[in-house]
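Handoff note, outgoing to incoming analyst
You'll be picking up this chain. Sequence as last confirmed:
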Amino acid sequence: MSVNLRQPSRSSALIAIGIALTLLLPVERARADSPLTSTNLADAYREMPEVQLAQRTKVAEGKVLSFLLSDAPTDQKAAVINALGWNVQGQRNGYRFLTGLAAAQGLTVQEIQLHHLRAVDRFVLGYLLAMDDYFQLSPLSNTASEDLWQAHPLQLISQAAYALPNDFTVQFVRAVVQGQGEFSKSWCSIYLGLQQVLNQFPVEKRNLRSQAVAQAMQYLQNYKSYCQQPALPNEQQSTNPELNQIYKIAEFQDQIVTATQGGIVFWDPQTQTATATRQERLCTSLAVWSNSLWVGCQHRLLRFNGNTWKLYRYDPQTVEEGFQLVKGPQGELLARHRSQLWQFDANRDRFVTANPQFGSGQGYDLIYRQNGEQWRIDFLKAIWRNQQQFSLKSKAYPGEDPRSFYEDAEGQLWVVDFKQGFFRFDDTTQTFQPVVDISGKGSAIAVDQNRTYFLHYTSGLSIREQGSSKPRFINLSELRYMRHLLIDSKGDIWVAGWNQLIRLRQQGNNWLKDVYRLSS
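Most recent structure output, in case you need it:
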């Protein structure tokens, strides 16, 4: 494996600092710092020898490295990483930790892979990488193809947060790193993200010392003043804010259902109120099949028939990958998990190993077209049709980061690309054609008889009328992160946000917004 470790130059870092300070003036100097560099966790743990050593050396080696590799509590590890600090010239403490972790497992640093890392290891590596390069939040390598080396700090910490939902330290640090990524976009969002974690964990359930939380919030509280206009429609925070963090939307029995970070929510479209909720963990897949609602979550695969729930598969060892529901070319209900693929057997009321004709379930996303073809995404590597490969950044597929497929009612295949936007597959030329005028951070797509809807991850929705070349844009940045959209049976558009659900209803030439959000 050949990798090019990123080491930001002092000049580029200083230029970035200058630009950031210019944008921030004339606010006071304290607020010109960033969330990562101003969050002080170490002082509350200054009696620890490892914290003292980290503050002196700034290098993750020797006793400091041994401590980070140990089974010490996450709050103490976070304090040591915080003590290692940051440097505008860049640091390599993430690489040092990975080398030590590989050696501890009898591997070389070239051999270790993402699946070798426990959730706690991903937290440590992610936090170290964030501190190593706090301006760019870059991965270990910008050129490697392996999932571990190309994983960004927030991705690693998020994986740890999903696996350790009750660990306050992990959730708090994740919010800080996420806030760092939003530093140039929305200071209000930084405050709201952290406050959301504080609301979720009462003091007695926090495993980070209260002094550390107080010191961190002493600076981070400054961002509250930038929330002059409420970013959320209700003043009160949700009793479970993760139920507002939406991955998927479906329409079931005259209700709208959302699969969220914290479980399932049923909404009455008319009253804009939630009729029921079910607590689960990281639900990312929904399907309506045979008059039932099917839900894929991090550890569980369930069905709701309108009256009762039933659990079909359970995998307590799952970390970041959940169950994905897929419809076969003849309408069969399939479920995949990692490389495994099952088919629902209605006669036996159970999932059985899928027929060989369906192939493997392996892939970042999987779809069976109406013509019977299986398409799958090999994350950041290639797109596959059955056994045919479409290399990334090639003439056949010019994109770099395909994330999901979509096939419309006419059998047209689309690819959503997180870097380039959207591509349409041309069955004649056998190539993917980019959608012009709509690019960057593609998140979801939907098509009806009159329009095509393109969702951007952070900015909003572009709507292209049939026969029109220029799309219309609707700003939905208040949703923060948008992962899915749905056209319901009435033709209304539903958009999944990271703090609420929005319905768009057309009235004349305007689109009206209806907000759906759980609150206490």
